[in-house]
Amino acid sequence: MSLLDALADRDRVFDFLVPASSPVDVRHGPILYLEDVNVSFDGFKAINNLNLTINDGELRCIIGPNGAGKTTMMDIITGKTRPDSGQVWFGSRHNLLTKNEPEIASLGIGRKFQKPTVFEALSVFDNLELAMAADKRVLPTLTARLSGEQRSRIDEVLETIGLESLCGRQAGILSHGQKQWLEIGMLLMQRPRLLLVDEPVAGMTEQEMERTAELLTSLAGKQSVVVVEHDMGFVRSIARQVTVLHQGSVLAEGTMDQVSNDPKVIEVYLGAEEEA
Amino acid sequence: MSLSSTPSSSSPLSHLWLTRPFSERSTRIFLAVLALALAVVTVLHLALPAGHPLHVSSYTVTLLGKYLCYALLAVAVDLVWGYLGILSLGHGAFFALGGYAMGMYLMRQIGDRGVYGDPVLPDFMVFLNWDSLPWFWHGFDMAWFAFLMVMLAPGLLALLFGFLAFRSRVTGVYLSIITQALTFALMLAFFRNEMGFGGNNGLTDFRELLGFDLRSDATRLGLFLASGVALALGYVVCRGIVGSKLGRVCIASRDAEARVRFLGYRVERVQLCVFVVSAMLAGVAGSLYVPQVGIINPSEFSPLFSIEVVVWVALGGRGTLYGAVIGAILVNYAKTVFTGVMPDAWLFALGGLFVVVTVLLPKGIAGLMTRRRKADSDTQLKEATP
């Protein structure tokens, strides 16, 4: 074996030798792995020895009272906040703590914020077109033309989010729920491996909630989905695995039935909600 | 609605951003109306005798040519304001720079026929006792160089200004104020004799352009037609940009800039490119304006003029392009009439018109047309979807 080959072989040892665009390695199961993560803001421990593993293709719900660190956790995964200590891995190859926000986004982690922001003056179709993974420089954008493949990708996503009949309408006329779905669709256009969804059903009607539940469940399997949600009814309707956060660390983990019967959980969260 | 009827899918020409506009109904109508107007004016000017009631005089032809230059300037402003959300209150500066580049060429064309008869130096330089041309006047005796500078000078200024402004993410009101300051600073600079642009009096006393006598009726008609063609080309370029994916990125960044960044687009580069294109179009408009009015002086840099341009666009309807053309022509026609009848009342009339349109027609005159069309498509959609 030549020296060059030996050096090349070392990319198993030194992760900086791995090209940033290399595929996510999920052979060992987890697509997202957080270990002993700590974050404090001005002495307040927002995240306290957090350990969390998300498996490839899983749909995971994360619940917890206000201030449990749910949003901070999302911020750490997407690179917006740097933890004081701990490890965050995407697959078993990408150390997310060494990457910035755009790099993490291009690795395939999509995040949907609580408030839907779609481009209201553009049509639903155009919204998806802009979100599509493509050459985003100025001149290629000027001369860009949809290929048949890209068009069918948009149609596919339109079907997934159930907005086919509205594809030519302005996004501004959509209802709140439809905007949320469109934004999930915009994330899907970038073919993410992991979707982080922050409170998707806040402000939705019952029917919209049901539809969202269907949408998120249908995504799992193809993508891994992490949903942060307050609405217990909604979580019950979609969740296979639930993680309860409390004061920055995991309080309980398991199926909805398991966690809702856990006395610690009842005390800090479910109990408090039933009283209220 | 079926998926196959999504926008811009059917035309075989849609692969080129510049040819796409020709397959759009609004562009075809606009170009047809413009061509018809140019043809009618030409025929009425050439075919009818001077005494005929329908005869278009040479004065009117030049006046209309001026309106067309203003219309091109308005289109340039609408491109950045209507689609990119950048309210430029300094586009007059790019217009004037294009005008000065043309003016310098026309000055060099005078040659030794000036009052002082100097073969090289324009009159004002002789008057100031200068003995040689300043370095930046060299090359302007060549038409190709001057015509290149008509676009390059405003383009470079816009590139420098835009690079600094957009890189530091200056937007909204702040950007508007800086553009205003830019044109004001240039006005003060050009007023100074030492700048070498004729100071207060500017450049005037032009004689010929490419060998054609500027005072002859034929040249005036030619300039009018050239302005019309420039407007058509500028319109098609702008329409091509706003109809492309880049145009949709512009609209998206106008409404939610941070979200566009999050999608991976370099918003500041998009803004810079479109801003430079707009400035170059404004420069072309200025260069055609100068030989028709016969003078360029620093008052074209006046902040007031740039604000007036914005009023034209607002009146005509922002974000439509053809609205800007309608607004520019209507307001300037009104200005010609009003300043003739009641010179003191004009500014009140303009202000009043602006208030009325903003309150009653927030989308301008063009909004009247799109409102009707939208109502039609809404009823169609209701019928199509159960």
Question: Could you characterize the architecture of this molecule?
Answer:
Chain A: This is Urea transport system ATP-binding protein. Chain A: GO terms for molecular function: ATP binding; ATP hydrolysis activity. Chain A is of the alpha/beta class and 276 residues long. Chain A has a single domain (3-275), classed as 3-Layer(aba) Sandwich (Rossmann fold), CATH 3.40.50. Chain A is built from 11 helices and 10 strands. The model of chain A has no long low-confidence stretch (mean pLDDT 80). Chain B has helices at 25-47, 58-83, 91-110, 123-127, 143-167, 172-191, 217-243, 245-255, 257-262, 267-293, 303-316, 322-341, 346-360, 364-384; strands spanning 203-204, 208-209, 212-213, 295-296. The radius of gyration of chain B is 22 Å and the shape is globular. Chain B contains 14 helices and 4 strands. In chain B, helix 1 packs antiparallel against helix 7 (217-243). Chain B has a single domain (15-381), classed as Orthogonal Bundle (ABC transporter involved in vitamin B12 uptake, BtuC). The longest helix of chain B has 27 residues, at 217-243. Chain B is 67% helix and 2% strand. A two-stranded antiparallel sheet of chain B has the order 1-4. In chain B, strands 2-3 form a two-stranded antiparallel ribbon. By secondary structure, chain B is mostly helical. In chain B, a hairpin with a 2-residue loop joins strand 2 and strand 3 (212-213). The interface between A and B is medium-sized, with 31 and 33 residues.
Read across the widest sheet of chain A, the strand sequence of neighbours is 6-7-8-3-9-10
Structural class of chain B: mainly alpha
Low-confidence stretches of chain A: none
Number of domains of chain B: 1
Q: How many β-strands of chain A, per DSSP?
A: 10
Q: What is the H/E order of chain B?
A: HHHHHHEEEHHHHEHHHH
User: What top-tier CATH class of chain B fits best?
Assistant: Mainly Alpha
Spatial shape of chain B: globular
Task: Based on Cα principal axes, name the global outline of chain A.
Answer: globular
Largest sheet of chain A: 6 strands, mixed
Q: Could you please say which CATH topology of chain A applies here?
A: Rossmann fold
What is the CATH architecture descriptor of chain B? Orthogonal Bundle
Q: Specify the number of helices of chain B.
A: 14
**Mean pLDDT across every amino acid position of chain B:** 85
How much of the polypeptide of chain B forms β-strand, as a percent range?
under 5%
Averaging pLDDT over every residue of chain A, what do you get? 80
Membrane topology (chain B): Multi-pass membrane protein
Protein name (chain B): Amino acid/amide ABC transporter membrane protein 2, HAAT family
GO molecular function (chain B): branched-chain amino acid transmembrane transporter activity
GO cellular component, one term (chain B): plasma membrane
